[in-house]
């Protein structure tokens, strides 16, 4: 089968960690030998006045075409007008990619299905392109596209329109599937294909060596992800008041950094909070291995990959009971879930974990049950059903591997 993978969330040589979860899923699927794929990862074009500002600079430097991990990746441009409403985004995205898609077909790559990721605007744009070129579309819902963007009236209408016309819909968690059903999407059309973890990349390293490298004596908490308000890093910072021997490393960057720095100072724990910035995926195991716990205090989540990454390195997690987190943390060896999302509840969960920590080898073994094999098999079945509906009517489903 030939796929056209379509997503604005995909790594580039300029932003190697952007949407890496989409690339990882595709790499495991390609390794099965059952599919081929060309990736179309559109990049916004912004006015010249914005091209030297912040993340817009990276957009401007992204090559039009490149090969990453032996996968052809195209980066066509589409217009993005800052501060203009999101209602036109799918149409601008589809229009900006149509010409590149014509060229893909003209050179002889006659793809069977569009594999789209993130419902808005990419999934809706993919549906527009699929109808124009006469190709079936499979859309994967990943989290905030359904849990947040679908709260807005116009995007919600477009999301429902695309979901009802897609050949199939995938969700990365049962919770996200339920949210799709609440929007009115036919449950029979939605299958759950959760993300996995690469246990060869994320593995335990020498704990003492990594802690010495970081200069850590007491307990170490880490949070990994964009510094945005929904991640709840403020709760983690404030919890340090009741954990005098603990430090917190915030790995990632984003618009919430200055506010979080201010909170750390005002709370009197500034010396125990370290802002690490962006870390390459290959270096994350060093931080995971040194930590006593990963903290994820998000207000919403689809399927948080960082939980599995930490556990694969032997580090238990403390996470808010939201979205797909209860589907990831189902055993005491994995960690502790907390609710409500308050400083007190988080602090209690951390104290519970520290009072009876699981063996790190048990946490690692638990994470190994979330490999990619089952999801890859589910994807192969799903795409085969879409391309050859008469031959394989089965509906795939993926939960935790046995």
List keywords for this structure.
single chain, 402 residues, alpha/beta, Rossmann fold, 16 helices, 16 strands, 17% strand
Strand order, sheet with most strands: 4-5-2-1-7-8-9-10
| General form | globular
CATH top level of the largest domain? Alpha Beta
CATH architecture of the largest domain: 3-Layer(aba) Sandwich
Main pleated-sheet profile: 8 strands, mixed
Structural class assignment: alpha/beta
Termini gap: 28 Å
Annotated CATH topology of the largest domain = Rossmann fold
User: Percent of residues in beta strands?
Assistant: 15-25%
Which parts are unreliable, with pLDDT below 50 for 5 consecutive residues or more?
Answer: 391-402
How much is the radius of gyration in Å?
21 Å
Q: Tally the beta strands.
A: 16
What's the helical proportion of residues? 40-55%
The total number of structural domains is: 2
